[in-house]
Specification:
two-stranded antiparallel ribbon, 254 residues, Fumarate Reductase Cytochrome B subunit, 10 helices, mainly alpha
């Protein structure tokens, strides 16, 4: 018990806070120094189908559940340090109870969206020509040089495999243990088991959130036109040609 408290309230709480702060500050610094990545040519007005309705619904459902889990998780782990002194114990206790219930009920829904999202997008996230060049050049983000990419670039694939599949699976599995609802497997929910699951859950969630900051940034204000396809299902032809040239050429456009 004492070892668990030292890890949770020491290592995870302290270093996790530093990691998320560093990630957030890095994104802010990038935006201040470089601003949004603009297209080299004006929008053409010609639209290309990129995502289906099911794909968009799955993405936004996963995004909504993730935000709910991230917010309530932050309150559970760090709320006592900044919210408790402002609100007092009565309000904070009631608020934290709501956060825990939301976290416990939304968690399984998040797992379902991960599975559906994986099935919908796994084929387009497999390694392909151009990934290594994109990774080595960091997508031209620093140099400004154009590096062709397929339907998804290496950065998006990294988020898919590391952020969503690996860390999402770790967070989901440990969360189901903490909720004591693991199906098909007989598990003894002893104190030690729950403490290990709690540590794994915390570490996985913090790492996933840090990566999500980057994904959310580049998918919204960090790149011109990047959010359009996930909102409407269509992207501008100029955007497709500049950011996903290999996919654009496969469509017979280039």
């Amino acid at each position: 018990g004492q070892e668990w408290r030292l890890i949770r309230n020491g290592v995870i709480t302290v270093y996790g806070a530093w990691l998320l702060t560093f990630a957030l500050c890095g994104i802010i610094a990038m935006y201040v120094l470089k601003g949004s990545i603009k297209l080299h040519e004006p929008m053409s007005g010609n639209k290309i189908k990129r995502f289906t309705l099911l794909e968009r619904i799955t993405h936004w459902t996963m995004a909504a559940t993730f935000v709910a889990l991230a917010f309530t998780g932050i309150m559970i782990l760090w709320g006592k340090y900044f919210l408790l002194p402002l609100t007092g114990p009565a309000f904070f206790g009631a608020f934290l109870l709501v956060c825990k219930n939301v976290h416990n009920f939304v968690g399984p829904a998040f797992t379902v969206t991960i599975v559906v999202f994986f099935l919908l997008f796994v084929r387009r996230n497999l390694p392909e020509k151009g990934d290594i060049a994109w990774a080595l050049g960091f997508g031209g983000l620093i140099s400004g040089k154009h590096i062709p990419a397929g339907f998804f670039n290496f950065g998006e694939k990294f988020w898919f495999w590391v952020g969503m599949v690996i860390l999402g699976s770790v967070v989901s599995a440990s969360g189901w243990v903490l909720d004591m609802i693991v199906p098909f497997i007989q598990i003894e929910y002893w104190r030690g088991t729950m403490q290990i699951a709690n540590i794994v859950h915390g570490v996985g969630a913090i790492l996933m959130t840090a990566l999500a900051f980057g994904h959310i940034y580049i998918g919204t204000v960090g790149m011109q036109g990047s959010i359009d396809a996930m909102k409407t299902g269509y992207c501008d032809e100029t955007w497709a040609k500049e950011h996903h040239e290999l996919w654009y050429k496969k469509l017979g456009k280039g």
